[in-house]
């Protein structure tokens, strides 16, 4: 018996209320598939610029690549012009995703300078206009992802979440840090709780979940309907099977051993290769291998070798000889 129920976002039912948080440069199709397999209930694309879709930029096609097995899937858009956001929402609505999410938390200066991402936290009425333009344009649920506030000590999450709700948002994800904190300091779960108490739509809590124990605590301390896990999933899709077990009151599975890590890296690479050119897939895998192997004996030497690998065959050989074979000999 699950201690925590499923998550309903508009007409989209999410059986396990644990999301892979969107992460640019990390949560691509390959990684999302692995996280779904490991137990994430919902996954989200990397953020995609509404303007880039409008102008038909080539890079966006790869970001929007998807497979039926990963659904339910959230497509995350960023932009701040209500009219354009409504227009793009309608253009992409029939794509292979179930929910359209709007990024209102990205702290990167280039994004904020354009009035996008976390800049929207300073303008709740625009938040309402964006969400309302989108919900009028599409039938699929529209959600937003916000932060606790903009300036270091600021807290505007309740006001922004209420604006999103007024615009018709079906759920809100709250990262318990301000824009100026970026990713430093601790996420403030009390701010997440205040949003949960203020709105009627489901709230998804986010920030600093690094274990199944953290996941349970975030649910318990805030009363949220769902949680989203970001950085702790990098090189660690197993975190989802652990959280899933904890939510069902089952014993938490053992951490993966080196052989299992090696096999996961090979699967990850195969998935990357199935839709990206080899040189791109190998480049992507270099960072993933560093995350997967952090903490394993000899990981820094392996990282150096992996960074010199040019082909998938070279990378595979390294994983087989340096991780899997060694693990099986130990
Ligand atoms: C490398 C990286 C990329 C990110 N990209 C996005 C993004 O595209 N959209 C978004 O809403 N949040 C993005 N985030 C924020 C995460 O979704 C999440 O809110 C944040 O990392 C806090 O959660 P965590 O403590 O579990 O990592 C990114 C975070 C990181 C570390």
Give a structural overview.
The chain has 14 helices and 11 strands. With 330 residues, it is α/β, with parallel strands linked by helices. It has 2 domains: 7-247, Aldolase class I (TIM Barrel, Alpha-Beta Barrel); 258-329, Orthogonal Bundle (Non-ribosomal Peptide Synthetase Peptidyl Carrier Protein, Chain A), CATH 1.10.1200. The strands form 2 sheets. Strands 3-4-6-7-8-9-10-11 form an 8-stranded parallel beta barrel, surrounded by 6 helices. Strands 1-2 form a two-stranded antiparallel sheet. It is globular and about 60 Å long. Bound molecules: flavin mononucleotide.
Distinct ligands, ions and cofactors found in the model: flavin mononucleotide
CATH class of the largest domain: Alpha Beta
Number of strands: 11
Percent in helix: 40-55%
Major sheet characteristics: 8 strands, parallel, barrel
Oligomer class:
single chain
Spatial order of strands in the largest sheet: 3-4-6-7-8-9-10-11
Shape: globular
Question: Would you identify the CATH H-level superfamily of the largest domain?
Answer: Aldolase class I
Structural class: alpha/beta
Can you lay out the helices and strands and say which pair or pack?
Layout: E1 7-9, E2 12-14, E3 18-20, H1 29-38, E4 42-44, E5 48-49, H2 50-54, H3 58-63, E6 73-78, H4 82-92, E7 99-104, H5 109-113, H6 124-137, E8 142-149, H7 157-167, E9 171-178, H8 189-198, E10 203-206, H9 212-222, E11 226-229, H10 238-247, H11 258-273, H12 278-293, H13 299-308, H14 312-329
Parallel strand pairs: 3-4, 3-11, 4-6, 5-6, 6-7, 7-8, 8-9, 9-10, 10-11
Antiparallel strand pairs: 1-2
């Amino acid at each position: 018996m699950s201690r925590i129920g499923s998550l309903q976002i508009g007409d989209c039912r999410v059986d396990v209320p644990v999301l892979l948080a969107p992460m640019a440069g990390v949560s691509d199709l390959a990684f999302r598939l692995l996280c779904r397999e490991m137990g994430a209930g919902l996954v989200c694309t990397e953020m995609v610029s509404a303007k880039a879709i409008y102008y038909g930029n080539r890079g966006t096609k790869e970001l929007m690549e998807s497979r039926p097995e990963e659904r339910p899937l959230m497509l995350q858009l960023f932009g701040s012009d209500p009219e354009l956001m409504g227009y793009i929402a309608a253009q992409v609505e029939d794509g292979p995703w179930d929910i359209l999410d709007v990024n209102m938390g990205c702290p990167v200066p280039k994004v904020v300078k354009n009035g996008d991402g976390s800049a929207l936290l300073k303008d709740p009425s625009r938040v309402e206009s964006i969400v309302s333009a989108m919900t009028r344009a599409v039938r699929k649920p529209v959600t937003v992802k916000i932060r606790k506030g903009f300036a270091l000590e600021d807290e505007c999450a309740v006001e922004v979440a209420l604006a999103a709700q007024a615009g018709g948002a079906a759920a809100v994800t709250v990262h318990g840090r301000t824009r100026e904190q970026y990713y430093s300091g601790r996420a403030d779960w009390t701010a997440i709780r205040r949003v949960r108490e203020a709105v009627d739509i489901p709230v998804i809590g986010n920030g600093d979940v690094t274990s199944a124990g953290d996941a349970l605590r975030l649910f318990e301390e805030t009363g949220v309907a769902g949680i989203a896990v970001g950085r702790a999933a990098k090189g660690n899709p197993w975190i989802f099977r652990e959280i899933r077990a904890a939510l069902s009151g089952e014993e938490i599975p053992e951490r993966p051993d080196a052989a299992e890590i090696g096999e996961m890296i090979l699967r990850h690479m195969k998935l990357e290769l199935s839709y990206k050119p080899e040189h791109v897939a190998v480049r992507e895998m270099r960072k993933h291998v560093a995350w997967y192997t952090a903490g394993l004996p000899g990981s820094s030497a392996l990282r150096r070798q992996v960074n010199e690998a040019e082909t998938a065959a070279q990378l595979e050989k390294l994983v087989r000889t340096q991780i899997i074979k060694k693990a099986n000999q130990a």
